[in-house]
Design brief:
With 267 residues, the chain is an all-alpha fold. The chain is built from 10 helices and no strands.
C-alpha cells in the first residue's frame, strides 16, 4: 500500500551539508543531533524510514568524535577517569549489540521503535529543562553502587542509540539524578557518543541499511558546525528552542506511528 504524500524527495547536497552544519552546531551546544536530524529527515521526506537509524549513526560519527575531543580538551579538569572510561566502554558495547539487532528489523518495527524513541527523547529533554541544575554543585565521579548504576544505564543508552535515541538527553537525565556536576556531564556525553556512534556505524555500514548521500552530507557538514559552536559561539540562550524541539519531536513521533499503522512509510 502506498501514499503519494510520502514520496521521497532527493535533497541537493548543499541542503544535506547544511543539515549537518545546523544539527551538529546545536548538538555541540547540548541539544543533541539525533532527534533533530530524525525530525528533519522524516518531515522533509528525505529518507526511507528503515534507513534512519543507520544513517544517523554513520553520518554523525565523525562530527561526534571531533566534538568529544574538543570537550575533553576544554573540560579536562572535570573528568574522573574511572567514571568516564567505564561509562564509555559500556555505551560502546551496548551500541555494538544494539545495532546488530536493529539492522535486521523490518520497516514497520523500526517505524514504531523510532516513534517511541523520539517520544522518550522528548521526555528526557523536558525533564532536563525542568530540573534544577547547578554548574558548580555535585560530584565529578561515581563510585560503588552509583557507578554500577551509571554503567548499566550507559549500556542501555548505547543500545537504544541504534534506534535513534541520542545519548545526550538520557545521559544528562541519569547523571543529574545520580548527583553529577553539570559541567562534568558533557565530557562523558561526548566521549560516550564518540564510541557509541562508530561502534553502531560499523554494524549498519556492513548491513547497507543507511542512505549514503545523507550520511555523507551529515559527516562533512557536521564538522564545521561543531567547530563554530565550540570555539566561536560557545553558548546561546536555548531554552525556548529546546521546547520547540520537544514539540517537533512529539509531532514527528506521531507521524511515524500513524505511518506504521497504515502499513506504509518512506520505504
Amino acid at each position: 500500500m502506498s501514499d503519494p504524500a510520502r514520496k521521497l524527495r532527493r535533497a541537493p547536497m548543499p541542503v544535506l551539508l547544511g543539515l549537518g552544519v545546523v544539527t551538529d552546531f546545536f548538538d555541540t551546544l547540548g541539544i543533541g543531533s539525533f532527534a533533530t536530524t530524525t525530525a528533519a529527515m522524516v518531515l522533509g521526506r528525505l529518507i526511507k524510514d528503515d534507513d534512519i537509524p543507520g544513517t544517523l549513526n554513520v553520518g554523525q560519527a565523525i562530527p561526534t568524535i571531533s566534538e568529544a575531543i574538543i570537550y575533553i580538551i576544554l573540560l579536562g579538569g572535570l573528568i574522573d577517569l574511572p567514571t568516564i572510561s567505564s561509562m564509555v566502554v559500556a555505551g560502546g558495547v551496548g551500541a555494538w549489540f544494539g545495532a546488530g539487532f536493529v539492522s535486521h528489523l523490518p520497516r514497520r518495527t523500526i517505524q514504531r521503535a523510532i516513534s517511541i524513541a523520539l517520544l522518550v527523547t522528548a521526555g528526557f529533554m523536558a525533564m532536563s529543562m525542568m530540573a534544577s541544575l547547578s554548574l558548580n554543585a555535585g560530584t565529578i565521579g561515581f563510585t560503588g553502587t552509583t557507578l554500577a548504576v551509571a554503567i548499566v544505564a550507559s549500556l542501555v543508552i548505547g543500545s537504544l542509540t541504534s534506534l535513534g535515541i541520542g545519548n545526550y538527553a538520557p545521559t544528562m537525565a541519569v547523571t543529574y539524578m545520580l548527583g553529577m556536576n553539570a559541567k562534568a556531564v558533557f565530557p562523558i556525553m561526548a566521549a560516550s557518543a564518540a564510541v557509541i556512534l562508530p561502534a553502531a556505524a560499523i554494524r549498519f555500514y556492513r548491513s547497507g541499511r543507511f542512505d549514503r548521500r545523507i550520511a555523507f552530507g551529515l559527516a562533512v557538514g557536521g564538522i564545521p558546525g561543531v567547530l563554530v559552536a565550540a570555539f566561536l559561539v560557545k553558548s546561546l540562550p536555548l531554552g525556548v528552542l529546546k521546547w520547540v524541539v520537544v514539540g517537533v519531536l512529539l509531532y514527528t513521533s506521531i507521524t511515524l506511528w500513524m505511518s506504521s499503522r497504515r502499513g506504509y512509510g518512506n520505504g
